[in-house]
Specification:
This protein is mainly α. Helices cover 71% and strands 0% of the residues. The protein has 14 helices and no strands. α2 packs parallel to α6 and α3 packs antiparallel against α4. The longest helix has 36 residues. It is globular. The mean pLDDT is 95.
């Protein structure tokens, strides 16, 4: 279900707002949470109901593993739970997103004949996989106490962010579900949410679609483009990507504000950045935060000398590139950004 679709704007969103505030007004707080989780599952399964099994299995598996780590009496058991969780999540991601890419290259290099599956990618699997990984690591560190299963389920499948982020941390979202002040409708938050949603809708439907026209024209005849045409198509594609993704994130923030919930900022005028480092502090900020906290720091960060720091930066950006898409061009893109960071 798309945020800019008629069914979302005129049916799903009003129904969600009405049900959420009505149940909270009746003091059926657990019922309101169940309702929000159910609406999020409807949103997730709208295009392909079979993928509901994947997200439900992911929620159950990760929550049980976090409980295992939480109540384990030995460090070995906790580490085993973390390892199983990482293998479970990354295995799911590999199968659905990278299986064909991996075996296509195996076929090419070794002249093998593995059959490609052409698997349809589940909605938001890259985003909720990283979020689940962060949850498991924080559970291993003993930082996720006091959260019930329902809180965790909403945290995982919450519909405004499930498709394209932002990547949430439990400590910035789940406590909001417990605040009584957020369970009552707030006219200021409702008006601000509508304004931000409308701004995001304008970015996505008007601006991104405006640039999509010349992009489609240019990509359909790459071989015959002049230098100036190619440059303009490149710029159009740059702005199409930005307004599409930024608009989606704005709409997610606006929807959450209407529900009296807050999502973290994901963009801060990234094309105003003055350096590669500054750019990644502004573009997809929650992804940068995840990569820094859960990959760069565990690798050693900048604490082990310049050469290992540069190595860690390149590893992080290669992972970022591969996370964006299963293609060698994305790996090259990640390598270029990593190299720019190192040189800077």
């Amino acid at each position: 279900m798309l945020f800019n679709s008629y069914i979302f704007i005129f049916l799903f969103l009003p129904l969600t707002l009405a049900g959420w505030y009505l149940l909270n007004r009746l003091k059926a707080w657990e019922g309101a949470k169940v309702f929000l989780a159910g609406m999020s599952l409807w949103f997730y399964g709208y295009f392909n109901v079979y993928y509901l099994a994947i997200i439900v299995a992911s929620i159950l598996g990760n929550y049980l593993l976090s409980c295992l780590m939480k109540f384990s009496r030995t460090r070995f058991t906790a580490r085993l739970g973390l390892l199983c969780g990482l293998l479970l999540n990354l295995g799911f991601l590999f199968y659905f997103k990278y299986y064909d890419f991996f075996f296509e290259n195996i076929n090419l290099i070794f002249r093998a004949n593995f059959t490609l599956k052409h698997i349809l990618l589940p909605l938001g699997i890259s985003f909720f996989t990283f979020q689940q990984v962060a949850w498991l690591v924080d559970s291993y560190r003993g930082e996720t106490g006091g959260y019930g299963f329902l809180d965790y389920a909403i945290f995982t499948v919450y519909f405004p962010k499930i498709a394209m982020g932002p990547i949430l941390l439990h400590r910035e979202f789940i406590p909001q579900l417990k605040e009584e002040a957020r369970q009552r409708m707030d006219s200021v938050n409702m008006s601000k949410g509508l304004m931000v949603f409308a701004a995001g809708l304008f970015k996505k439907v008007i601006l991104a679609e405006f640039f999509a026209g010349p992009v489609a024209w240019g990509f359909s005849q790459v071989g015959s483009l002049s230098s100036s045409d190619a440059f303009l198509v490149m710029l159009a594609y740059t702005f199409q990507l930005y307004f599409d993704f930024s608009g989606y994130c704005d709409m997610a923030v606006g929807i959450s504000r209407m529900l009296n919930l807050e999502l973290p900022q994901n963009f801060n005028s990234p094309y105003k950045a003055l350096s590669p480092v500054d750019f990644w502090k502004r573009w997809h900020m929650t992804l940068t935060r995840f990569l820094r906290n859960y990959i760069y720091f565990p690798l050693g960060g900048s604490r082990r000398g310049s050469l290992k720091t540069y190595r860690n930066i390149l590893i992080v950006f290669l992972i970022s590139g591969l996370w964006h898409g299963a293609n060698w061009t994305f790996l090259l893109w990640g390598l270029l950004h990593g190299a720019a960071q190192v040189f800077h």
